[in-house]
Design a protein that fits this description.
The protein has 175 residues and is α+β, with helices and mostly antiparallel strands.
C-alpha cells in the first residue's frame, strides 16, 4: 500500500474481522473505531457491549537500503472492550465470551497490507468504567512494510560530446 494510509486500512480490516466474529451465535456487540472525543466522556451506545479499535503506535525495525529504503513496521492496535456484564445474560454472551471469540478470531489473522499474521502482545486487567461497564484491553501487533516512494527521475539527455581523435579535438552537438 505505497503512499496510502496503512493505519486506517488496518484499523478498518480489524473492525471488519471483529464484525464477522460478532455474527456468531451467542455474541452481541458492536465493533467500532475508538471515539475521537475524550474517552472519559464516551458513552457506549450498544446495549450489551462494544469493542473499540485504535492504533497506538509502532516499533520500526532496521532500515534496509538496497537502492530503495524498506523498513518493517510493528504496528500496535488497542482493542478496548466495554461490556455491561462479565458473563452471559440469557442467550447473549458477556465480556468473557467476546474476549475469547475475538482472541481466537484475530490470532493469526493477516489484514491486507500486512506482511505477517497478527499476534496478541499484551492484555490488561478487567476494571470498571463509569461504574456500570466492564472494561478490558488487548494490544495486538500487525506487521506491515514502510517502503520508500520513488520520485520519477528526469532523464538526462546528451547534448554535447567532445572527443579526441589523434590529438585533434572534435565536438559534436545534438540539436
Amino acid at each position: 500500500m505505497a503512499g496510502g494510509d496503512q493505519i486506517t486500512a488496518i484499523e478498518d480490516a480489524i473492525i471488519a474481522r471483529l464484525q464477522a466474529i460478532l455474527q456468531q451465535p451467542g455474541l452481541s456487540a458492536a465493533a467500532l473505531t475508538y471515539p475521537d472525543k475524550n474517552f472519559d466522556e464516551y458513552e457506549p451506545i450498544h446495549g450489551n457491549g462494544e469493542i473499540l479499535v485504535v492504533y497506538t503506535g509502532e516499533d520500526d525495525g532496521p532500515t534496509e537500503d538496497t537502492g530503495l529504503v524498506v523498513q518493517e513496521r510493528e504496528m500496535l492496535f488497542e482493542l478496548t472492550f466495554l461490556f455491561s456484564s462479565l458473563r452471559a445474560v440469557g442467550k447473549t454472551g458477556g465480556l468473557n465470551a467476546h474476549l475469547e471469540a475475538s482472541r481466537m478470531g484475530l490470532t493469526g489473522y493477516k489484514p491486507d497490507g500486512c506482511t505477517k499474521k497478527m499476534t496478541l502482545v499484551s492484555v490488561d486487567r478487567v476494571k470498571r468504567y463509569k461504574k456500570r461497564w466492564w472494561q478490558y484491553t488487548q494490544i495486538w501487533k500487525a506487521v506491515a512494510m514502510n517502503v520508500e516512494i520513488l520520485e520519477e527521475e528526469q532523464p538526462v539527455y546528451l547534448t554535447r560530446a567532445t572527443a579526441f581523435d589523434n590529438g585533434i579535438e572534435k565536438t559534436l552537438e545534438v540539436p
